[in-house]
Amino acid sequence: MPGRSANRKIWAIGLVAAVVLAGTVLLSGRWRDRAGGDHHAATTALSHVHGLAVNPTDGELYVATHHGVVRMSHHQASLVGDARQDTMGFAVVGPDHFLASGHPAPGQPGPAHLGLIESRDGGKSWQSLSLAGQADFHVLRASGAITYGADSTSGTLMASSDRTTWDSRSRIDAYDLAIDPKRADTILATTERGVQRSTDGGRTWQPSGGPPATLLHWQDAERLYALGVDGRILLSSDGGVTWSPTGGTAPEAPVAFTVRGDHLFVATRSGDVRSSSDAGTNWQTLETSLS
Predict the structure, then answer these.
(1) pLDDT tens-digit profile of 239-278?
(2) HSE-up of 17 (CA within 13 Å, CB side)?
Protein backbone atom coordinates (compact mmCIF):
# COMPACT_ATOMS: atom_id res chain seq x y z
CA MET A 1 0.00 0.00 0.00
CA PRO A 2 1.23 3.53 -0.62
CA GLY A 3 2.86 5.52 2.12
CA ARG A 4 2.45 9.23 1.50
CA SER A 5 0.71 10.44 -1.63
CA ALA A 6 2.95 11.36 -4.55
CA ASN A 7 2.04 15.04 -4.63
CA ARG A 8 2.93 15.45 -0.97
CA LYS A 9 6.30 13.81 -1.62
CA ILE A 10 7.05 16.20 -4.46
CA TRP A 11 6.54 19.41 -2.53
CA ALA A 12 8.20 18.18 0.64
CA ILE A 13 11.32 17.12 -1.24
CA GLY A 14 11.35 20.53 -2.85
CA LEU A 15 11.23 22.18 0.55
CA VAL A 16 14.11 20.22 2.04
CA ALA A 17 15.97 17.17 0.81
CA ALA A 18 16.24 15.77 4.31
CA VAL A 19 12.50 15.38 4.67
CA VAL A 20 11.38 12.16 3.02
CA LEU A 21 7.67 11.62 3.37
CA ALA A 22 7.61 7.89 2.97
CA GLY A 23 9.20 7.55 6.38
CA THR A 24 10.27 4.00 7.03
CA VAL A 25 10.94 2.92 10.57
CA LEU A 26 12.01 -0.68 10.90
CA LEU A 27 11.41 -1.84 14.44
CA SER A 28 14.19 -4.26 15.22
CA GLY A 29 14.07 -7.44 17.26
CA ARG A 30 12.01 -10.63 17.25
CA TRP A 31 8.41 -11.27 18.09
CA ARG A 32 6.20 -14.30 18.54
CA ASP A 33 2.79 -14.42 16.93
CA ARG A 34 -0.32 -16.01 18.42
CA ALA A 35 0.34 -19.27 16.61
CA GLY A 36 3.72 -19.53 18.30
CA GLY A 37 5.83 -18.81 15.25
CA ASP A 38 9.08 -16.94 15.74
CA HIS A 39 9.67 -14.16 13.22
CA HIS A 40 12.55 -11.83 12.43
CA ALA A 41 11.65 -8.15 12.15
CA ALA A 42 13.24 -8.18 8.70
CA THR A 43 10.39 -10.46 7.63
CA THR A 44 7.62 -8.58 9.43
CA ALA A 45 9.11 -5.09 9.17
CA LEU A 46 6.82 -2.40 10.52
CA SER A 47 7.54 0.28 7.97
CA HIS A 48 6.26 3.74 7.07
CA VAL A 49 5.53 5.50 10.35
CA HIS A 50 2.60 7.81 9.67
CA GLY A 51 1.73 9.21 13.07
CA LEU A 52 2.54 9.56 16.76
CA ALA A 53 0.21 10.31 19.66
CA VAL A 54 0.06 9.81 23.41
CA ASN A 55 -2.87 7.97 25.00
CA PRO A 56 -4.10 9.78 28.15
CA THR A 57 -5.13 6.45 29.70
CA ASP A 58 -1.61 5.11 30.14
CA GLY A 59 0.54 8.10 29.15
CA GLU A 60 2.31 5.94 26.58
CA LEU A 61 3.33 6.80 23.03
CA TYR A 62 1.44 5.07 20.21
CA VAL A 63 2.93 4.76 16.73
CA ALA A 64 0.81 4.38 13.58
CA THR A 65 2.66 2.21 11.08
CA HIS A 66 2.25 0.33 7.81
CA HIS A 67 1.33 -2.83 9.74
CA GLY A 68 -0.86 -1.59 12.57
CA VAL A 69 -0.45 0.42 15.76
CA VAL A 70 2.53 -0.02 18.08
CA ARG A 71 2.56 0.89 21.77
CA MET A 72 5.84 2.14 23.23
CA SER A 73 5.95 1.14 26.89
CA HIS A 74 8.78 0.74 29.40
CA HIS A 75 11.39 0.94 26.64
CA GLN A 76 9.69 -1.78 24.60
CA ALA A 77 7.40 -1.78 21.59
CA SER A 78 4.40 -4.04 21.16
CA LEU A 79 1.82 -4.41 18.44
CA VAL A 80 -1.62 -3.51 19.74
CA GLY A 81 -4.46 -5.93 19.09
CA ASP A 82 -4.77 -8.09 16.00
CA ALA A 83 -5.41 -5.40 13.35
CA ARG A 84 -2.54 -4.97 10.91
CA GLN A 85 -4.01 -2.31 8.63
CA ASP A 86 -1.79 0.30 7.01
CA THR A 87 -2.62 3.03 9.53
CA MET A 88 -2.29 6.39 7.80
CA GLY A 89 -4.01 9.36 9.40
CA PHE A 90 -3.96 8.85 13.18
CA ALA A 91 -5.25 10.82 16.15
CA VAL A 92 -5.86 10.12 19.82
CA VAL A 93 -9.01 12.05 20.73
CA GLY A 94 -9.55 10.81 24.29
CA PRO A 95 -8.61 8.07 26.75
CA ASP A 96 -8.25 4.86 24.70
CA HIS A 97 -10.17 6.63 21.91
CA PHE A 98 -8.32 6.58 18.58
CA LEU A 99 -9.24 7.67 15.05
CA ALA A 100 -7.42 6.46 11.95
CA SER A 101 -7.59 5.94 8.22
CA GLY A 102 -5.55 4.00 5.69
CA HIS A 103 -5.73 0.67 3.89
CA PRO A 104 -6.64 -2.90 4.88
CA ALA A 105 -3.96 -5.43 5.73
CA PRO A 106 -2.87 -7.78 2.92
CA GLY A 107 -5.56 -10.38 2.34
CA GLN A 108 -8.14 -8.51 4.40
CA PRO A 109 -11.48 -8.08 2.61
CA GLY A 110 -13.07 -4.72 2.02
CA PRO A 111 -12.38 -1.53 0.07
CA ALA A 112 -8.87 -0.28 -0.64
CA HIS A 113 -9.51 2.88 1.40
CA LEU A 114 -10.72 2.50 4.97
CA GLY A 115 -12.27 5.95 5.27
CA LEU A 116 -12.58 6.83 8.95
CA ILE A 117 -12.15 4.04 11.48
CA GLU A 118 -12.35 4.21 15.26
CA SER A 119 -11.04 2.34 18.29
CA ARG A 120 -12.45 2.84 21.79
CA ASP A 121 -10.21 0.27 23.46
CA GLY A 122 -6.76 1.70 22.87
CA GLY A 123 -6.29 0.20 19.40
CA LYS A 124 -7.18 -3.38 20.28
CA SER A 125 -10.15 -3.37 17.91
CA TRP A 126 -11.41 -1.07 15.17
CA GLN A 127 -14.79 -0.23 13.68
CA SER A 128 -15.66 1.59 10.46
CA LEU A 129 -17.38 4.92 11.01
CA SER A 130 -17.72 6.52 7.57
CA LEU A 131 -16.41 7.00 4.02
CA ALA A 132 -15.23 3.39 3.59
CA GLY A 133 -14.00 3.02 0.02
CA GLN A 134 -14.17 6.77 -0.53
CA ALA A 135 -11.52 8.56 1.55
CA ASP A 136 -7.91 7.96 2.51
CA PHE A 137 -7.06 10.50 5.20
CA HIS A 138 -3.32 11.04 5.46
CA VAL A 139 -3.83 13.56 8.28
CA LEU A 140 -6.54 13.48 10.94
CA ARG A 141 -6.98 16.12 13.62
CA ALA A 142 -9.85 16.73 16.04
CA SER A 143 -10.84 19.43 18.49
CA GLY A 144 -14.01 19.13 20.49
CA ALA A 145 -16.80 17.97 18.20
CA ILE A 146 -14.98 18.84 14.96
CA THR A 147 -12.79 16.38 13.08
CA TYR A 148 -10.69 17.43 10.09
CA GLY A 149 -9.18 15.07 7.55
CA ALA A 150 -6.84 15.68 4.63
CA ASP A 151 -8.06 13.24 1.97
CA SER A 152 -5.24 12.10 -0.30
CA THR A 153 -7.63 10.73 -2.94
CA SER A 154 -9.08 14.17 -3.72
CA GLY A 155 -6.60 16.63 -2.21
CA THR A 156 -9.51 17.98 -0.17
CA LEU A 157 -9.76 19.10 3.43
CA MET A 158 -12.91 17.55 4.86
CA ALA A 159 -14.68 18.28 8.14
CA SER A 160 -17.27 16.50 10.24
CA SER A 161 -19.14 17.31 13.44
CA ASP A 162 -20.38 13.74 13.96
CA ARG A 163 -17.68 11.65 12.17
CA THR A 164 -20.41 10.24 9.96
CA THR A 165 -21.37 13.03 7.60
CA TRP A 166 -18.63 15.11 5.99
CA ASP A 167 -18.28 18.51 4.34
CA SER A 168 -15.60 19.13 1.69
CA ARG A 169 -14.18 22.50 2.70
CA SER A 170 -11.34 23.27 0.26
CA ARG A 171 -8.61 21.82 -1.89
CA ILE A 172 -5.25 22.13 -0.18
CA ASP A 173 -2.14 19.97 -0.40
CA ALA A 174 -1.49 19.84 3.33
CA TYR A 175 1.30 17.75 4.76
CA ASP A 176 0.28 18.47 8.36
CA LEU A 177 -2.55 20.22 10.20
CA ALA A 178 -2.88 21.81 13.63
CA ILE A 179 -6.07 23.13 15.26
CA ASP A 180 -6.27 26.03 17.67
CA PRO A 181 -7.18 24.37 21.01
CA LYS A 182 -9.62 27.20 21.83
CA ARG A 183 -11.07 27.95 18.38
CA ALA A 184 -11.75 24.87 16.30
CA ASP A 185 -12.36 26.97 13.16
CA THR A 186 -8.74 28.18 13.22
CA ILE A 187 -6.38 25.74 11.49
CA LEU A 188 -2.78 25.84 10.33
CA ALA A 189 -1.54 23.72 7.44
CA THR A 190 2.00 23.12 6.24
CA THR A 191 2.16 23.29 2.45
CA GLU A 192 4.63 23.87 -0.37
CA ARG A 193 3.62 27.55 -0.20
CA GLY A 194 4.56 27.80 3.45
CA VAL A 195 2.33 27.63 6.51
CA GLN A 196 -1.26 28.53 5.65
CA ARG A 197 -3.96 29.72 8.06
CA SER A 198 -7.72 29.33 7.97
CA THR A 199 -10.10 31.04 10.40
CA ASP A 200 -13.30 29.65 8.86
CA GLY A 201 -12.85 25.94 9.35
CA GLY A 202 -10.68 25.32 6.30
CA ARG A 203 -12.93 26.96 3.71
CA THR A 204 -10.42 29.66 2.82
CA TRP A 205 -6.69 30.04 3.46
CA GLN A 206 -4.14 32.84 3.79
CA PRO A 207 -0.37 32.74 4.37
CA SER A 208 0.34 32.57 8.07
CA GLY A 209 3.84 34.00 7.84
CA GLY A 210 6.89 32.72 9.61
CA PRO A 211 9.45 30.18 8.38
CA PRO A 212 8.43 27.19 6.26
CA ALA A 213 7.75 24.06 8.28
CA THR A 214 6.81 20.44 7.79
CA LEU A 215 5.26 19.20 11.06
CA LEU A 216 3.14 20.96 13.69
CA HIS A 217 1.75 20.33 17.15
CA TRP A 218 -0.61 22.83 18.80
CA GLN A 219 -0.31 21.83 22.42
CA ASP A 220 -2.22 24.67 24.08
CA ALA A 221 -2.91 28.38 23.67
CA GLU A 222 0.64 29.31 24.63
CA ARG A 223 2.57 26.52 22.90
CA LEU A 224 2.44 25.82 19.20
CA TYR A 225 5.43 23.80 17.95
CA ALA A 226 6.76 23.48 14.42
CA LEU A 227 9.63 21.58 12.85
CA GLY A 228 11.21 23.97 10.37
CA VAL A 229 12.48 22.73 7.03
CA ASP A 230 15.96 23.77 8.17
CA GLY A 231 15.70 21.35 11.12
CA ARG A 232 15.13 23.96 13.80
CA ILE A 233 12.43 23.43 16.40
CA LEU A 234 10.24 26.52 16.57
CA LEU A 235 7.80 27.67 19.22
CA SER A 236 4.99 30.21 18.99
CA SER A 237 3.04 31.65 21.92
CA ASP A 238 0.65 33.67 19.75
CA GLY A 239 -0.87 31.07 17.50
CA GLY A 240 1.77 31.15 14.80
CA VAL A 241 1.95 34.91 14.24
CA THR A 242 5.54 34.99 15.48
CA TRP A 243 8.01 32.17 16.06
CA SER A 244 11.13 31.69 18.14
CA PRO A 245 13.67 28.88 17.92
CA THR A 246 13.85 26.73 21.04
CA GLY A 247 17.55 26.17 20.49
CA GLY A 248 16.93 22.56 19.64
CA THR A 249 17.16 20.70 16.36
CA ALA A 250 14.95 17.89 15.13
CA PRO A 251 16.49 14.53 14.22
CA GLU A 252 17.25 14.14 10.53
CA ALA A 253 14.32 13.40 8.21
CA PRO A 254 11.40 13.60 10.66
CA VAL A 255 8.16 12.00 9.45
CA ALA A 256 5.92 12.21 12.54
CA PHE A 257 5.84 14.53 15.55
CA THR A 258 3.90 14.96 18.76
CA VAL A 259 4.30 16.60 22.16
CA ARG A 260 3.17 15.51 25.63
CA GLY A 261 3.87 17.93 28.47
CA ASP A 262 7.55 18.86 28.17
CA HIS A 263 8.40 15.81 26.06
CA LEU A 264 8.82 16.03 22.30
CA PHE A 265 8.59 12.84 20.23
CA VAL A 266 9.82 12.44 16.66
CA ALA A 267 9.90 9.45 14.33
CA THR A 268 12.45 9.47 11.52
CA ARG A 269 12.83 7.63 8.26
CA SER A 270 16.18 6.19 9.35
CA GLY A 271 14.65 3.81 11.91
CA ASP A 272 14.41 5.82 15.12
CA VAL A 273 11.71 7.00 17.48
CA ARG A 274 13.21 9.67 19.72
CA SER A 275 12.19 11.81 22.68
CA SER A 276 13.48 15.05 24.12
CA SER A 277 12.69 16.73 27.43
CA ASP A 278 14.72 19.89 26.76
CA ALA A 279 13.00 21.33 23.67
CA GLY A 280 15.13 19.33 21.28
CA THR A 281 18.60 20.12 22.57
CA ASN A 282 19.21 16.47 23.39
CA TRP A 283 17.41 13.39 22.11
CA GLN A 284 17.01 9.88 23.50
CA THR A 285 16.42 6.99 21.11
CA LEU A 286 13.58 4.83 22.36
CA GLU A 287 13.95 1.07 22.36
CA THR A 288 11.92 -0.35 19.47
CA SER A 289 12.43 -4.07 19.98
CA LEU A 290 9.04 -5.70 19.68
CA SER A 291 7.86 -7.68 22.67
Answers:
(1) 999 999 999 999 999 999 999 999 999 999 876 889 999 9
(2) 0
